Amino acid sequence: MDDAAPMGLSPAVPTGSDTGPTTALLTDQYELTMLRAALADGTAHRRAVFEVFARRLPHGRRYGVVAGTGRLLDALERFRFDEETVAFLRRRGIVDDATADWLRDYRFRGNMWGYAEGECYFPGSPILVVEGTFAEAVLLETLALSIYNHDSAIASAASRMTAAAGSRPIVEMGSRRTHESAAVAAARAAYVAGFASTSNLAAGRCYDLPTGGTSAHAFTLLHDSEEEAFAAQVAALGMGTTLLVDTYGVREAVRTAVEVAGPGLGAVRIDSGDLAVLAHDVRAELDALGATDTRILVSGDLDEYAIASLVAAPVDRYGVGTALVVGSGHPTAELVYKLVARSVGTEPDSPMEGVAKLSTGKPTHKGRKWAHRRLEDGTAVAEVVGTHPECTVDGCRPLLVPLVTEGKIVGREPIAAARERHLRSRAELPPTALKLSRGEPVLPTTYDDGEHAGHTGQLEQTGHTRGEGGAR
Amino acid sequence: MDDAAPMGLSPAVPTGSDTGPTTALLTDQYELTMLRAALADGTAHRRAVFEVFARRLPHGRRYGVVAGTGRLLDALERFRFDEETVAFLRRRGIVDDATADWLRDYRFRGNMWGYAEGECYFPGSPILVVEGTFAEAVLLETLALSIYNHDSAIASAASRMTAAAGSRPIVEMGSRRTHESAAVAAARAAYVAGFASTSNLAAGRCYDLPTGGTSAHAFTLLHDSEEEAFAAQVAALGMGTTLLVDTYGVREAVRTAVEVAGPGLGAVRIDSGDLAVLAHDVRAELDALGATDTRILVSGDLDEYAIASLVAAPVDRYGVGTALVVGSGHPTAELVYKLVARSVGTEPDSPMEGVAKLSTGKPTHKGRKWAHRRLEDGTAVAEVVGTHPECTVDGCRPLLVPLVTEGKIVGREPIAAARERHLRSRAELPPTALKLSRGEPVLPTTYDDGEHAGHTGQLEQTGHTRGEGGAR
Q1: Contact residues on chain B for A241, CB-CB shorter than 8 A
Q2: CA A463/CA A470 separation, integer angstroms
Q3: Do B328 and B304 form a contact (C-beta atoms < 8 A)?
Q4: Can you tell me the ipTM of this complex?
Q5: Which residue of A has its CA nearest to B149?
Q6: What residues of chain B lie within 8 A of the CB of A202, using their CB?
Q7: Between β-strands B170-172 and B197-198, what pairing exists: parallel, antiparallel or unpaired?
Q8: What is the pLDDT of residues B397-442, one digit of tens each?
Q9: Contact (CB, 8 A) for A357 and A471
Q10: Any CB–CB contact under 8 A between A410 and chain B?
Q11: Which residues, numbered 183 to 242 in chain B, qualify as contacts with chain A under a Cβ-Cβ cut-off of 8 Å?
Q12: Domains in chain A: ranges and CATH
């Protein structure tokens, strides 16, 4: 786990560096108290498999998008109990001396597999599989969930927006509406799901994302007239800049903008009003003024539905803020981290046993899982989840890739790879996946469970809604 | 701005230290490009007043809660353009040499006033007033909004939950459902709004909050039997611990718990099922076993409505997760940061002029504002917002307190002060404030605007809903 991660250094979310602040306390207290009790009775050293999965998608969503994988690997590298951290836990009485000693030496030395970042997922998809001793794996629950729940929620919403926008680029500009560090991660997740750029400079620096942004209404109001404001902006940023034209009257502003910048003006932005009507008016005005190549950027409370409603409007680019960072109504992916198997004893050859909570309404399938996507003629038709590495069904591609092998991070990749993967993964889904209306997940999750169906290829199909899956 | 802030050091969100990572890029790019253009034409040096306010409360909410003030002051102290940061901006072509030079020397040297943290707020409340040159104030837009929008959304939801819970404590346990750094801030905001403790260890360390948490279902499943799991937990954590009793059957688990720990068992936790029914069953079972002092903690998708529905159930404590960190349906406060006044020229005695965007649907009142809460017989009856420091109406208490004076942070306070203030501020509201049903803000915001009504005390009352306020 000492690979260098040449991804730059974020001021808010330092990544890829072992010297950054520890992530070890981004953790719920019970992980430490469970560790303490399990170290005391020896069960901490049983081998364990935890899985991250969604029991259901947010209501009406047809697919989810995995994001956060790269961030988890960065955070894992910095998950260390340094002296100050251990001292805090001792001072609070959360851990005893034996646990403190164990924590000082803590490195995750187990294995992780996961859906590659950008991949689509469905209820029951084992997005992340964590294998190690109970002690080393239980500590990662909160950190893994926080990262995946946030980033996947944002990417899942973002993917609907980029699907609705088609070939028109979307600029992410939601930083102000969410926590300042969540904003950086949101910009990254949006990029994975196909956004073109972000206004967030920390994201630009940390993840080498394209950034954009030119001016706000305050800049116009600062000046004595709109004309002076536009002239100042063009003088400083060139005529390729984007002028904001809705501080006073839009049509007059467009005329002023072209007078000031000339017909080579890069773009105008409309941030309020009836965007469809205004876009038509502004396009006509720009064309009449000879500014036929000047682009129109619209923003202002856009979500995937508003984007879709503008499909016939002469809009060149969208700016999306609030709806993106709040996951368009679903700010968390509601993924869970569950123990699905553990060894009977602590000896290296002690057999593994599948485990699950028995409570109603929360289906959990026992045993460590593998996942495949079944395709017919290039179109995905089912998620096949089973307790064996090989899929017994024809036409399946494997979904789990190695992320960490015996403590060594092996799953890092450029963010562009995740972005390209997402577009491929989405394109492979049935066309109904891209409908914005509420619906069922477009792929059923079928369980190819060795304990029940054997290797016969006979599949059990579980329902899509909560409770139907049933606990075994 | 070099006051020491003895609040500990967070691994995720270092605070109170000038040596931590800079916050300067937690910023939208347009703030830098506006700065660049305004430095070039000299308008950057005009004095300016920006205000943070809500155009409206989230639909149906009766009051909002200000949170994030302390975090903003910490972040402001670390808002510095170091060489690496400037180099990034130059490399990307976002700033020119003159702007880069200006940024290297940047310190906020202006003034800030704000609603004290924990105070209730209403549409139009000037939660934060930032006064400085345009250049120094425009840079803080995104950072200020990110912090206030997140923290106030969480505190506003949390306050409804603590109001519904009455004297029963609530434990915050939502970290896993939100971004890992947002989780730390959410725990802090929840505490401001009256939560008793948090499961988040980084929040415990960074803000010295009480923390709690003992075990998850995984701990029971790790063991060969529930009895062994309970015995291990009691052996390690003492009989005052909280045992989780819904991994298999709740009633059997309660009997096992008391057998293992004795009737002095601290508490049991129920995390699924029909909590009201189960709480009654568990209470009866505990009492029958002589464990009359054993408390019952319930958790599992609780929000303010679920808490209220459990008022008659024998529940001692609540654990709230997802609903808290997503703001119970409103994850952002939708606060805005608007230029409301700027000087006509750049000379020190140049007069100030109120400014506002003219577009429809987004009411903005011109001019720097002061805010007071008008009380009758100890009950708040109106928010009085005016363009003069003194309120012309009887029975008003001032709401703006100094936070930064000529660049020096003067508004720091212990988080306990904000927490106590919130309880006082909420208690002062009309009783309908605590109704959970959808309603209008319980206080009207009245404008005592020197430009229009003069000092006559004649007030204009604006509507509560979007658009009714009207732009002037």
Answers
A1: 33
A2: 9
A3: yes
A4: 0.93
A5: A177
A6: 25-27
A7: parallel
A8: 999 999 999 999 999 999 999 999 999 999 999 999 999 999 999 9
A9: yes
A10: no
A11: 183-185, 199-202, 204-205, 211-219, 221-224, 228, 231-233, 235-237
A12: 213-298 (3.20.20.70)
Per residue in A206-244, pLDDT (tens digit) is: 999 999 999 999 999 999 999 999 999 999 999 999 999
How many CA atoms lie within 13 Å of A108's alpha carbon, on the beta-carbon side? 32
Place of tokens 């291990």: B232
Residue A150 in contact with partner chain B when CB distance is under 8 A:
yes
CA distance B103 to B100: 5
C-alpha to C-alpha distance for A268 and A244, rounded to whole angstroms: 6
pTM over 0.80, yes/no: yes
- List the structure tokens of B372: 């007071």
Query: What sign has the CA pseudo-torsion B435, B321, A177, B201?
Result: positive
CA distances from A58 to A61, A156, A335, A444 (A): 6, 10, 10, 15
DSSP B404: E
Rg of chain A over Cα atoms, rounded to whole angstroms, equals: 25
**Considering only CA atoms, which of B210, B12, B190 is closest in space to residue B118?**
B190
**Cβ-contact A164, A306 below 8 angstroms:** no
Residue with tokens 């260390």: A80
Is the CB of A92 less than 8 angstroms away from the CB of B37?
no
Q: Kind of pairing, strands B242-244 and B267-270? A: parallel
**Which of A389, A218, A451 is closest to B142 using CA atoms?**
A218
Tokens 């703006």, located at residue: B400
Picking from B289, B230, B288, B283, the residue whose alpha carbon sits closest to that of residue B261 is B230
CA distance B414 to A9: 32
Distance of CA A34 to the CA centre of its chain: 29
